[in-house]
Task: inverse folding
């Protein structure tokens, strides 16, 4: 069964989505959050006769899930797209949704309202065609991916699905692996004293210097380790450094926030142990060296076995629609895929072509979004039988 895609619906829906400001307030304090865009999506999914529910773990941080009910007994599939965007800074006309040369411009067009419009258009195509599926197809339009992933984390609690496609833009490649990341804080602890009291003061900043020299060696060591074939090597950087209170005072504390990018196979414990080994080594060499670490956030890396049905069906459908086999790729960034995979859902990522995520000029290619809609509809037809 070949499914017809309503490209006008896709373009108009995408334009509406881009015109609604859904900047994540966790990233830009003036951001309004997801309530307005969620109301729009809920209404649109209602019009397609889906069962619609909203989820709001925090006020104004709304996710919407529309379910196209199957007749029962088949595999269920979630099409996932986040509705929040990063800020607009000095973007020109961020909410214009102008179309030029087949590209639709505006904040979120590429990351990832084009993908959401493709998910909605895919479901509309199934509804219009009167497709009879055994399993449910869910459109999950989720909040807060750009910050803490409140949306997908909440949605997972309410829906059990067999498979999921996170439609983050991938240039129509199929993403089967990506990096994770951790944020850690290391504090060196000194003793405050008057600047003249060298015999009393313990300089936390100087001790952080020792730690940083060792951390630099660890960073270089990460590069020599075996790379993951799809995501590249792990890395870390000393992101934020704050120490001391005044020029004539020995610094009692110095805090360093580290970002560590992890690759599939690396664990949280391994990352923490590597940092602790440096602290322990420096403390053994000098009893006045005191430091402690804490973990601020953990986002696991992601990897899916390409032999799993959701990847196989996606490959098959994409090859039919695109006329060539899509590449299996890895991504260096992090996506909600990892949360779904951790919940036991077989998950893969694929989305349209475009450019300018998080930058000054952002656009999505409309033809690629239409192809994506076609791919998603074909996947549902096969996967949810
Ligand atoms: Zn995104």
Result:
């Amino acid at each position: 069964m070949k499914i017809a895609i309503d490209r006008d619906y896709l373009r108009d829906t995408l334009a509406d989505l881009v015109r609604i400001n859904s900047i994540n307030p966790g990233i830009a304090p003036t951001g309004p959050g997801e309530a307005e865009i969620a109301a729009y999506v809920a209404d649109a999914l209602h019009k397609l006769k889906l069962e619609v529910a909203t989820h709001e773990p925090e006020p104004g941080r709304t996710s919407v899930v529309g379910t196209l009910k199957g007749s029962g007994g088949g595999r269920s599939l979630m099409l996932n797209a986040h509705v929040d965007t990063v800020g607009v800074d000095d973007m020109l006309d961020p909410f214009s949704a102008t179309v030029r040369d087949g590209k639709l411009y505006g904040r979120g067009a590429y990351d990832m309202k084009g993908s959401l419009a493709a998910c909605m258009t895919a479901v509309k195509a199934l509804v219009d065609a009167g497709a009879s599926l055994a399993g449910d197809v869910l459109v999950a339009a989720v909040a807060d991916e750009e910050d803490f992933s409140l949306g997908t984390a909440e949605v997972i609690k309410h829906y059990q699905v067999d498979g999921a496609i996170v439609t983050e833009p991938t240039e129509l490649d199929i993403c089967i692996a990506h990096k994770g990341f951790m944020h850690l804080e290391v504090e060196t602890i000194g003793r405050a004293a008057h600047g003249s009291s060298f015999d009393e003061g313990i300089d936390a900043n100087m001790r952080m210097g020792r730690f940083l020299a060792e951390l630099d060696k660890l960073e270089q060591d990460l590069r020599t380790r075996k790379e993951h074939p799809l995501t590249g090597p792990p890395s870390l950087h000393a992101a934020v450094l704050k120490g001391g209170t005044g020029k004539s005072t020995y610094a009692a504390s110095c805090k360093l926030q580290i970002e560590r990018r992890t690759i599939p196979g690396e664990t949280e414990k391994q990352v923490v142990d590597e940092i602790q080994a440096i602290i322990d080594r420096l403390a053994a060499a000098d009893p006045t060296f005191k430091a402690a670490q804490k973990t601020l956030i953990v986002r696991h890396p992601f990897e899916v076995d390409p032999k799993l049905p959701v990847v196989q069906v996606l490959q098959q459908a994409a090859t039919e629609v695109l006329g060539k086999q899509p590449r299996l790729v890895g991504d260096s960034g992090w996506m909600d895929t990892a949360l779904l995979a951790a919940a036991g859902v077989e998950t893969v990522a694929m989305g349209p072509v475009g450019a300018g995520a998080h930058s000054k000029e952002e656009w999505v290619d409309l033809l690629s979004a239409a192809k994506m809609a076609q791919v998603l509809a074909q996947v549902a037809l096969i996967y949810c039988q």
Q: What stands out?
A: The radius of gyration is 24 Å. The first strand starts at residue 51 and ends at 55. Residues 53 and 65 are 5 Å apart (CA to CA). The chain is about 35% helix and 25% strand.
